[in-house]
Amino acid sequence: METTTTTVQPAMNSIASQLDPLSSPQQVSDVTGIPVNTLAYWRCEGMNLPFTKMGRVVRYRREDVLEYIERNTFSSTAGAKAGRVVS
Question: Which member of 18, 22, 28, 54 lies 3.0 to 4.6 Å from 59 by CB, making a disulfide possible if both were Cys?
């Protein structure tokens, strides 16, 4: 039986290429699938994903989005419930 190994790095490179250095909430939503309204709620509550605000303009740093994805990558639902990240 042949074993297939999946590497995460190419996937992260693909995600990174879809994001600007400072991405809009819509861009982040398009890439992550997190609704724009959820991102707005998180900003109001100060949770999950750091953001930058310049006047009225809200942006997310590419590095923060990629780090958020990495922090929320799990090998099982049990691991997700316990907060254990895949290493």
Answer: 22
Which position has the token pair 């999946």?
6
User: Treating both helix axes as pointing N-terminal to C-terminal, what angle do 25-32 and 9-18 enclose, rounded to 10 degrees?
Assistant: 150
CA gap 64, 50 in Å, rounded: 7
Among the listed residues 3, 20, 32, 79, the one whose alpha carbon sits nearest the alpha carbon of residue 49 = 32
CA-based torsion, 41, 77, 79, 14: positive or negative: negative
| Pairing state between β 22-23 and 57-61 | antiparallel
pLDDT tens track for 10-43 = 778 888 888 989 999 999 999 999 999 999 999 9
How far apart CA 43 and CA 41 sit, in angstroms, is 5
pLDDT at 53 over 90: yes
Q: What is the pTM of this model?
A: 0.77
- Identify the three-state secondary structure at position 22: strand
